[in-house]
């Protein structure tokens, strides 16, 4: 049976990232109710503690907030926080290594920009 989760990353992180993606993609907006822990447990057929760990991290970071007895909601400014965090991770995880490797290979900034434009389909 196939699972919607990657094997090399903890499931609670993947649950967290799925919620983050919904916020970044405007599927969940500020003030919207996020899926409940029980809904996520039932949908993904995974342990309640695993789901809670991912959701609680989002609460601790101010991305979600709890309304006692009602559920979890997307906090004000959550999307901006997530986009900024993902940009910083992108730079650390990809761009620094890209520039270092390009320097080793003698690839210029202009060449990198041309490659990016080609990949995006705007070879201008």
TrEMBL record:
HTH gntR-type domain residues: 9-77
Q: Report the GO molecular function annotations.
A: DNA binding; DNA-binding transcription factor activity
In terms of InterPro entries, this protein maps to: Tscrpt_reg_HTH_GntR, WH-like_DNA-bd_sf, WH_DNA-bd_sf
User: Which SUPFAM superfamilies has this protein been placed in?
Assistant: Winged helix' DNA-binding domain
- UniProt keywords, alphabetically: DNA-binding, Transcription, Transcription regulation
Write down the PANTHER family for this protein, in alphabetical order: GNTR-FAMILY TRANSCRIPTIONAL REGULATOR (PTHR38445:SF10), HTH-TYPE TRANSCRIPTIONAL REPRESSOR YTRA (PTHR38445)
- The protein here is known as GntR family transcriptional regulator
Q: In which organism is this protein found?
A: Ornithinibacillus halotolerans
């Amino acid at each position: 049976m196939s699972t919607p989760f990657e094997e090399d990353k903890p499931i609670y992180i993947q649950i967290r990232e799925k919620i983050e993606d919904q916020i970044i993609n405007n599927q969940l907006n500020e003030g919207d109710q996020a899926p409940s822990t029980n809904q996520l447990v039932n949908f993904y057929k995974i342990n309640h503690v695993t789901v809670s760990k991912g959701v609680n991290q989002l609460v601790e970071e101010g991305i979600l907030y709890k309304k006692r007895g009602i559920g979890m909601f997307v906090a004000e400014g959550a999307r901006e926080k997530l986009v900024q965090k993902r940009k910083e991770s992108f730079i650390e995880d990809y761009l620094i290594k890209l520039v270092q490797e390009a320097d080793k290979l003698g690839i210029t900034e202009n060449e990198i920009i041309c490659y990016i434009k080609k990949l995006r389909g705007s070879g201008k």
